[in-house]
Each structure stands twice: as C-alpha cells, then as structure tokens.
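2024-03-11 09:14:02 INFO worker-7 job=invfold-0412 stage=load source=structure_tokens
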C-alpha cells in the first residue's frame, strides 16, 4: 500500500471544491446574465427544480447550453477521481496554482484598463467636453451605467483575460504604482489647484480594492500573510504540513464557499444584484465601477479556493515525499 493513501480523500475534496467553484461561478453568469436555463431550468421539465423555481420556457439551443451546464457539474465531481486514480501531472499543485494565477492576472489587467478608461470618460464628461469628442448621442449613452458597463468595461475585461492567458506572471507592482500616482494626483490637484472630483477618489478605491483582494491568493502561496506563530513556529515540518492541510480544509475552503454561495445563490443575491443592475454610487459624475467591486469578492473567493486547493496538494505531496525518503533509508 502506498503511504498516505488515506490522504487521497482530502486531495479529492480539494480538487473537487476548486473545480466546482469554477463551474458554479461560470454557470452563474451564464444563467443570470445570458439567461441560459442552468441546472434547475434544464431539469425543470422532468420535475426536478434543484434550487430555484423556474417558470420560463427556453429554446432548444438554450436547453443544449443548459445540458452542458448540468454536465459540467458532473465532470467537476468525476474529474478529480480520474486525476488522483491515474496519478496525472495535474495531481501536483502546479495546475491549480496556475489556475489561480490566471484568474488573478485576468482581474488585475482588467481592473487596470477599466480604471484608466472609466476615469478618462468621467473626467471629460464632468468637464462637459465629452459631446464634442464622441457626439451628443454617444455622450448621453456613456452616462448610463448599463451602456458603459456593456460596451466599455466588458471588452476591457475580455482584453485583460487574453493578456493574462498569454503572459506569464502577475505584475502587481504596476497596479501599486498607479495607486500611488493616483493619490499623488489627488494631493496635487486638491492643495495646489483646488480641484477635486468624485471620480478621482473612486479610481483610487477601485484600484486599492483590487490590489488587496486579488493579491490574497498570491500572498498565500508565498507565505506573505501575517501569521501569529504562538504554536506553529515550534512545530516540526510534518506537524506544519498537517496544520496547513487541515486549516485549509476546515477554515479556508468553507470560507470561500460561504462567500460564493451567499453572494451568487440566486438572482437577488448581493453580488448578482449589483452586477445585473450595473450598480453605481449616488454621485452621478463619479466612476461607474461600483458593481465591479462586488465582482472583486467573487475573484477573491475563487482564486483563494484554487490556492487553498494548491496549498493542500503541495503539503500532501510533501508528506508523501518525506515518507518515501524515510522508507528508503529504512530499507537501506
């Protein structure tokens, strides 16, 4: 019997949680933003309303997407079994770590581009020069949150995702630099030129929120979070491995799922409500990005879910490797 075979069930829980989290978030957007039936709408004709009442009738094409949505949950449950039983390369922590990196990098680039574009639009709009640049009709449309979100923010979000897929690494330093420059601009314009607008504070808050929430998963894998080492510092490597595995399993993964379920369970859940209505602040000439800041929590929970999964797999493999070394020494 291979050592630590009992760890396979923990390994499965970690992988299944990460895969189900990605499927849950993806299907949430397909269901509530693009009006596809989801699991409940797909199973409703046979009398199985999984988690919400469905009264809407869908086209045949929508039902095909609904079937894919339903099957994706099944695959998320079965794929970890296949990975673990066949000891594929995905069995190490590099795959889940890469997934977390792509999620965070996509959000990072999107937030940087959206912040710059929305701040420019807000500035020229409040100064009354937007109509002379884009025309009266488009200027009026850009003053509507839904239009700006659909035709400005979403393309930039897609651009950020493409950059993250093809570019390795996360350049948090650039977002941190932009935050410093944004604060410096506020100080200079306020105290030297007596000029300040709502969008300037919105931009800094937007970037601040993104920096801290997106970097949480990155900081976790690099042991950058503050740890109160009252007991942990004196543990052996084996005890530390078990502590990190159980802590991620009992505290980390459930926290991520609480955030996702509470925020995305139904159309009236807080994250969905903000995203679907393109929620903005009461300041009409500020930036139209408040709804995206609700999405930051989705990115935080999903990236941390993958990173906790990676954390668990890393320490499981570390324990197995150490045990194999010990057995090899004993055999000799």
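2024-03-11 09:14:09 INFO worker-7 stage=emit residues=332
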């Amino acid at each position: 019997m291979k050592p630590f075979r009992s760890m396979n069930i923990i390994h499965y829980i970690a992988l299944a949680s990460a895969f189900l989290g990605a499927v849950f978030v993806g299907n949430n957007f397909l269901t509530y933003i693009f009006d596809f039936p989801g699991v409940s709408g797909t199973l409703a004709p046979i009398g199985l309303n999984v988690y919400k009442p469905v009264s809407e009738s869908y086209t045949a094409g929508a039902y095909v997407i609904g079937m894919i949505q339903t099957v994706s949950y099944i695959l998320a449950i079965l794929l970890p079994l296949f990975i673990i039983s066949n000891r594929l390369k995905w069995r190490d922590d590099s795959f889940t770590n890469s997934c977390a990196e792509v999620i965070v990098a996509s959000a990072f680039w999107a937030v940087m581009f959206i912040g710059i574009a929305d701040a420019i639009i807000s500035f020229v709009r409040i100064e009354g020069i937007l109509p002379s640049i884009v025309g009266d009709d488009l200027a009026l449309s850009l003053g509507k949150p839904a239009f700006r979100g659909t035709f400005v923010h979403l393309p930039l979000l897609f651009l950020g995702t493409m950059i993250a897929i093809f570019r390795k690494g996360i350049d948090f330093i650039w977002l941190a630099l932009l935050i410093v420059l944004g604060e410096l601009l506020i100080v200079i314009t306020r105290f030297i030129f007596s000029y300040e607008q709502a969008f300037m504070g919105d931009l800094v808050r937007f970037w601040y929120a993104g920096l801290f929430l997106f970097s949480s998963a990155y900081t976790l894998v690099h042991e950058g979070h503050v740890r109160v080492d009252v007991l942990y510092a004196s543990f052996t490597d084996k005890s530390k491995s078990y502590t990190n595995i159980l802590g991620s399993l009992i505290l980390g993964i459930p926290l991520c799922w609480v955030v996702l379920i509470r925020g995305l369970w139904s159309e009236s859940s807080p994250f969905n409500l903000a995203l679907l209505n393109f929620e903005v602040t009461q300041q009409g000439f500020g930036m139209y990005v408040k709804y995206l800041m609700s999405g930051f929590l989705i990115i935080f929970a999903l990236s941390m879910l993958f990173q906790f999964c990676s954390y668990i797999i890393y320490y499981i493999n570390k324990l197995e490797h150490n045990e194999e070394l010990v057995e090899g020494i004993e055999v000799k």
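2024-03-11 09:14:09 INFO worker-7 stage=report msg="Residues 290-331 form the longest helix (42 residues)."
2024-03-11 09:14:10 INFO worker-7 job finished
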